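Ligand: coenzyme A. Inputs:
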Amino acid sequence: MDWNPMNGPPAVTRLARYTASEFDEIRGDVLDPFEVKGSGLVWRPTEEHFGIRLDGRLVAHAGYVPVPLSVGGARFRATGVGSVIVAPGQRGRGLARTVVASAVEHGRGRGLEFGFLFCRPDRVPVYERLGWRLLKDNVRVDQPDGPIVMPLRSMWLPLREEAVWPSGPMRLLSLPM
Ligand SMILES: CC(C)(COP(=O)(O)OP(=O)(O)OC[C@H]1O[C@@H](n2cnc3c(N)ncnc32)[C@H](O)[C@@H]1OP(=O)(O)O)[C@@H](O)C(=O)NCCC(=O)NCCS
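Predicted complex:
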């Protein structure tokens, strides 16, 4: 399953589905790659799936789902990115960069102005390298028993040159992705 990064990144394909078996194929024997199981958070699935296969094995995935937000007085939908994962043996070679770019382009093509995602604090530098910006203030999100303050970091990405994240209280009007 070797490839030469000098020849450019491997092709991204749209996956017909992303279920537990596709997740298992990527994660290998790492039980909790996202390290958020302990948080008890309830998530929404992503809707469109961008993956990379090497020698027939799925090794990377990024999910896209449009998500409704209220920020200050403004209500809008953003390109929600979630379930970003690269197989342990393939990390550090630009595969996350490649699949995340595909998910982001999908949202941009749908006229959405912003990307939006949640991640653990130690993953923030990865997304910063991809141009995402950290939101310093809390974001409230839906959970089955009502809204809570999201314990993970929130990040946004401008999908147009002039896009500026609005100021004011932030609320994701859905479960997190
Ligand atoms: C996080 C993860 C998706 C990164 O995948 P990856 O394919 O190794 O990332 P890439 O090679 O595309 O790297 C993207 C950028 O982040 C940087 N980067 C990668 N891992 C990093 C780390 N642990 N700390 C800091 N920067 C990192 C890379 O140097 C690269 O920047 P550059 O191109 O400017 O050099 C992968 O480690 C993973 O699957 N982790 C487990 C699941 C997870 O945490 N997913 C994210 C949920 S929000």
